[in-house]
Design goal:
Helices cover about 30% and strands about 30% of the residues. With about 200 residues, it is α/β, with parallel strands linked by helices. The chain has one domain: 3-Layer(aba) Sandwich (Rossmann fold). The strands form two sheets. A seven-stranded mixed sheet has the order 3-2-1-4-5-9-8, sandwiched between helices. A two-stranded antiparallel sheet has the order 6-7. β2, α5 and β3 form a beta-alpha-beta unit. It is globular, with a radius of gyration of 15 Å. It starts with a helix and ends with a strand.
Length: about 200
């Protein structure tokens, strides 16, 4: 399943995030914690930004100049309507190089849609766009081993993959970053997130 297919799947289910029942606090505490480690308050990037704008709002409130990127055209259109003053990019993160360097990068519930064989290269590219001292927060499938699967829980079939907890930790250390926080925030579900800082 290619990232473009993921985008088309999410085009069909934007209502899940625009519905009043969606929990807009999802991921907020992790981002609030991650921001405390950031030295600068320059540019920020929300990877897989979706349409809620909740992380964009948080970053604006904390003094950042945020941008968003998403592979779903419908999500990007809704995001632009909500924040017309913010730059949004309708791009595939597997092929796209962010246009600059950032003090903060978020990839909440998005990296896990990247094909397994491209996970390391995408993380590497994102970290290469972090300023020294910059912070990257991302969620992932906290499995013991690398793996991939598909399911249709949300409606259309969607692909997921993970390097596994050890795989991500090894990669970020090899890329000159330090783990500031690792948490399985929905235990016993294998939803985990990392906060890393570039040295």
């Amino acid at each position: 399943m290619k990232p473009q297919d993921i985008g088309k799947a999410y085009d069909q289910i934007t209502a899940r995030w625009t519905d009043d029942r969606f929990d807009r606090r999802n991921g907020i505490s992790a981002h609030e914690q991650a921001v405390t480690f950031v030295k600068g308050r320059g540019r920020a990037l929300d990877v897989g930004c979706g349409c809620t704008g909740r992380f964009i709002d948080l970053l604006l409130d904390r003094g950042f100049t945020p941008e968003g990127v998403d592979v779903s055209g419908e999500m990007i259109e809704l995001a632009r309507q909500k924040h017309p003053q913010v730059s949004f990019h309708h791009r595939d993160i597997c092929e796209w190089t962010p246009p600059g360097h950032y003090d903060f990068i978020s990839a909440w519930d998005s990296i896990w849609h990247v094909p397994l064989e491209q996970q390391a290269s995408v993380i590497t590219r994102l970290i290469s766009r972090l300023n020294a001292g910059g912070v990257f927060v991302f969620s992932f499938g906290g499995t013991k081993e690398p793996g991939e699967h598909r399911n249709n829980v949300m409606g259309p079939e969607v692909y997921y993959s993970s390097l596994g907890t050890s795989g991500f930790l090894t990669l970020i250390m090899d890329l000159g970053c330090i783990c500031m926080h690792l948490e399985y925030d929905q235990y016993p579900e294998l939803h985990a997130y990392l906060i890393v800082q570039k040295l």
